[in-house]
Prior knowledge:
The chain is of the alpha+beta class. The chain has helices at 44-53, 57-129, 136-168, 180-193, 217-234, 292-302, and strands at 176-178, 203-206, 213-215, 241-248, 251-258, 306-311, 317-325. Strands 1, 2, 3, 4, 5, 6 and 7 form a seven-stranded mixed β-sheet that branches. Helix 2 runs antiparallel to helix 3 (136-168) and helix 5 runs antiparallel to helix 6 (292-302). The longest helix has 73 residues, at 57-129.
Amino acid sequence: PAFAGPAPPPGMPPPPxxxxxxxxxxxxxxxxxxxxGPGRPDFGPVGRLHLLVNVPVWPVAAPTVWAxxxxxxxxxxLAGGLAGxxxxxxxxxxxxxxxxxxxxxxxAMVSHELRTPIAVLRMHAExxxxxxVVDRGKRHEFLDSMAQEALRLQRLIENLLDLGRVERGAKLxxxxxxxxxxxxxxxxxxxxxxxxxxxPEIEIEAAAGLPRALADPDAAQQAIANLVHNALKYGGDPPxxxxxxxxxxxxxxxxxxxxxxxxxxEQRESVFDPYVRVGQEITxxxxxxxxxxxxxxxxxxxxxxxxxxxxxxxxxSVFELDFAEEK
Length: 327
């Protein structure tokens, strides 16, 4: 036979045809055209390797190829993992930057919101103290203004404290069967109080046979009051605000409707984040810290419910609170 090298060990496959030594390997003259003289076999690189190690080449090379491919696969997997980690890190960094900007904006809003009522309280108190207001009706107007500004400060402080409890996970909820129609009436009265005589009447429509909902009465009232308060601020001039209560599929829903300018689709998720308000702070004329909707979402999550923002047909917004029906 042409190939007279040592046979492969038992169980080891023979070398592929492409790796066989040339005819006459070790048994004759060099192939024609090899440039070697007579009697000098032309081993070739494969033949010389075979002669050196005295074993077939293919069984030695195959494990090396598989090891190389395995290393390449590991490098590819590592590169893919690193790319995914970088994308996640970039999103997290972007979110942190946005949150830092929102917090800086929030600090400016808090300063403004505290400065304005304090200035009004001080000015009116000094005028009354120094008997600069003689007319009885004017004195009553000053006292009413002071009461409104004090209420604003109270609402601001309560929102800040509640936000702190929510962020620390210290807010507790007591879920009991609740009459959402009665709670909605209390919430509307609470929200209208902040606007005094300027607050319009708000119609509340409750579906017949309304079942009780599983809710925390205080958290449910504050969530509805926050939405009504926002609707009175942004619901048009004069504001058109309504409240509807319905039920179905084991849920009880409270909808607060307004005829304001609405909220752009790209901002409908961010408006529920703390420290965020729609628009630019430098051009904003309305008061507030932008905590109301963040607290509404937190209150609803704590009660196992949801809040959804929708467009109102004909213009405006609809905020819908979804509660579980009493079992």
